[in-house]
Structures are given as C-alpha cells and as structure tokens.
Amino acid sequence: MMSPKPAISEDRLVRSSPIRPAPLQVIHILGNSMRIWSVYSLYRYVSTQEESIVAFIFTCLVPAAIIFLVLQKPWKGRALPNSQVVPTVVNGGIMALYYVLWGKGLLTCGPLLALLGEYAGAVLGVLSAALFGRNVNFFKKVAGLAAMLLSYYLLSNGWATRTSFPLNSFVAEDELPTKAVGMKEMVVPLTAGILSALRRVIARRISLKNQLKRRLHAITIASATCFLFPVAMWDTILGSASDSIVKFQFPSWAYVSTILFGIVLVFYIDNLAEERLHIVFSSPRHLMATSCCIILMEILYGFDFSVFGFLLCTAILGFGIYQATSLDRSKRGAPLESQELSNGTFHTGLPVTSLPS
Question: Which of 39, 137, 164, 230 lies most in the core, judged by the most C-beta atoms within 10 Å?
Fold first, then answer.
C-alpha cells in the first residue's frame, strides 16, 4: 500500500511564489529598456535633423497601425458593438493629441523630462480618489500631489544635470551650466502624461478582457493615425523642409525602433505587466524600472547628467505617486482589494472604478 505524499506547506508555497514571475519581470525590464532606448534614439535623430517630430511620429504610426490591424484583425470574430467602437475612436483622438504634445515636449525638454512627465498621469489618481473614493485621507492626497509638483519643479530647474545641481561641487569654472527648462515648458510633457493616463483609463473602462482589449487597441491606433494626419501635414508645412516626409521613408534606427519598440512592443509589455505582474504604468515600481533605464541611457549618450540629483528627484516623485494614488485601509490587516493598483498590486475582484491611471 502506497503511503500518501506529504502535503506541501503553505510557507513553502509563499517562498516559492516570487520565483515564478522572475522571467516575466526580466521581459518587462528589457521591453521597457528598449522603449526608452527608442525615445533617446528618436531625440538624437530629430534634434540633429531639421524635420518635424509630429510628422515623424505620424509616419511611424502608419506602419504600427498596419501591424496591429494585421495581428489583431478587429473585423473578425464577434462584431464589436457601437458602445465600444465609438469610445475607442474618441480614445484615438486623445492618443493623437497625446503624441502631438509628447513630441513637442520631447524636443523642448529632452528625453529625461519627457519620460518622467508621463508619470504625471498619477494626478488622475488624486482626482478620482478625492471625488469618488471612500474613507480617503484628503491631506495625504494633497501631500502626494505637492511632492510630485516639487519633483517636477526641481527637474525643470536642472537638478538632474551635473552642471546645474546645487549640491555638485565638481563643476569646472569654465564649464557653463545647462540652461534650465522651466515650469512653463514642463506643462507640455505633463499634459501629455495626463492624456496618456486618460486614454489608459478609457481603454480599461471599455473592456476588461485582454483579447478584446487588443482588438480595440488596433482601432485606437488606426483612428489616432487618421486624427494625426492633418496635424502632421500642417506641422510639416510650417516648421520643416518640403522634402522632410521623403526623408522619413528611408529606414533608420530611430524610425524602426520607434515603430517596433516605442509603439508596438510597449503595448504588449504594458499588458504583460498589468495582467501577470500586477504593475500599472503610474506606479512607484514602474518608475523605479524606468529610472534605472534612464540612468543607463543618459550615461551612454553622454548627456549632462547628475545621478544623485536625478535619484533625489525621482525619489520625491515616487513618494508623491505612492501617497497620491494609494488608498487608505480602514483597519490593520485589510484585504488586498483595498490596495490601489498604483502600488503595484491588485486583485481580480477590484472594481474598475478604482483605477487611477
């Protein structure tokens, strides 16, 4: 008679569970790194060429939209209702406006501020918690929002640069400090970050099913391309040479990387992070991974960069995001459903209305 196998203890399961998503975390970090690399490549290319960045992004959206349509085939399968198609098309208009502001912010503020400006979408978490949240500590939300604004203020004043960081004493006397961007210019990437979070909210509200979300995203990209077409043509006529679109047709690393990594791959990586790793975009954990990639890119590209100043600003920003988007627990040992998605953890029973960004 065979003896029964010993039951696996609960402690052993808890200890072994973090090992399972390790390959997925590696994929998430690599995908995020490739996307950030594409942003730096795009900035280096556009800043050295007299070309329109909005028209460049448009020419990248055209093949990306084709790729999504071919992969997802939204016209096949169960017909999509108008209650989902119409908000998806509207979301494409929001995405087009996001790309316009993000491109302008990239040229004006540089890749570092453009990437960190995307985390301004956590402001939606403050608004949603203040308007719809229950048992919300309003002063905690205000403190988190103040920390976020302080971080962006320090970044706009050059605290992430080696020559402008006030605590840096290793700057040569004949070395001129980098010109500060200023909060007025930072409004553009910050607004783009809020729009990016808004389109994510709309995409989640429309569908919770991952397969349907991909089909709708193909429609969103296609509609964003259509909305961006007149803006790109107008921006090209006003600010660029007449043959700039002809130059875009020649493949380059900035062009290919923006399509593959900056538009196509990042969508699947973000879905992987949300569905399997339980990490949303506007979260301290996502910010930490992005900061590591930014440090590597700033050093590799040889920009004026202060590691200590950058870490100080991102630490303040991460603290602000955590305070502004986290929900209070009614009592010690509250269930996991009461935690906010921005903290990097969520449960399948979490209501959709609690998603901040």
Answer: 39
Cβ-proximal residues to 290 (8 Å cutoff; 6+ apart), any chain? 32, 36, 115, 116
Q: How far apart are CA 55 and CA 258, in angstroms?
A: 13
Residue 337 CA from chain centroid, whole number: 24
Burial label for 113, CB within 10 Å (0-12, 13-18, 19+), is: buried
Q: Which stretches of the chain score pLDDT less than 50?
A: 1, 6-19, 241-246, 248-249, 328-357
Residues 6+ apart with CB under 8 A from 124: 194, 197, 198, 201, 282, 356, 357
pTM of the model: 0.82
Q: Which two tokens stand for residue 278?
A: 């339980």
Q: Which residue has the tokens 């991460």?
A: 318
Phi, psi dihedrals of residue 282, rounded to the nearest 5°: -85, 75
pLDDT digits (tens, 9 = 90+) for 180-207: 788 888 999 999 999 999 999 898 888 7
Calculate the CA dihedral of residues 121, 122, 125, 126 and round it to 10 degrees.
Answer: -110
